[in-house]
Design goal:
Shape: rod-shaped
Number of strands: 0
Number of helices: 3
Helix content: 55-70%
Largest sheet: none
Strand content: under 5%
Structural class: mainly alpha
Radius of gyration: 32 Å
């Protein structure tokens, strides 16, 4: 079963609670896991994990940008190659069909609209 994600606003409230606990000098919990020392360690671990996530997201976004640039470069080169095939072989050659375009002779003639 998947864990329920704790919203960031709740974590913000929890951090405020920890600050309040730190001001209670006579706070002595029965559970060791509720001590301010343990809570500070867990908060520090969470902050570190959040920082790692932020760094990884920056890396992911940079790679996505690189992919977008490479895709555009590839697409533009393919578009240029199609134009080169038409120039080299002509717009009605079988080579035009080979690269996925429609030959000029197979296009429907434009119909005139009645006025």
């Amino acid at each position: 079963m998947a864990r329920k994600k704790v919203p960031a606003v709740v974590i913000d409230d929890d951090r405020e609670t920890l600050k309040g606990l730190l001001r209670l000098h006579d706070y002595a919990p029965r559970k060791e896991s509720c001590s301010t020392a343990v809570l500070q360690i867990k908060d520090a671990a969470l902050l570190e994990a959040e920082e790692r996530l932020a760094q990884l997201m920056e890396l992911v976004n940079a790679v996505r940008e690189e992919i977008d640039i490479k895709r555009e470069e590839f697409h533009n080169s393919i578009t240029d190659a199609k134009a080169e095939v038409i120039v080299q072989y002509g717009s009605d050659a079988l080579a035009v069909e080979t690269i996925g375009l429609r030959r000029k002779s197979e296009r429907r003639p434009a119909r005139r609209r009645a006025a």
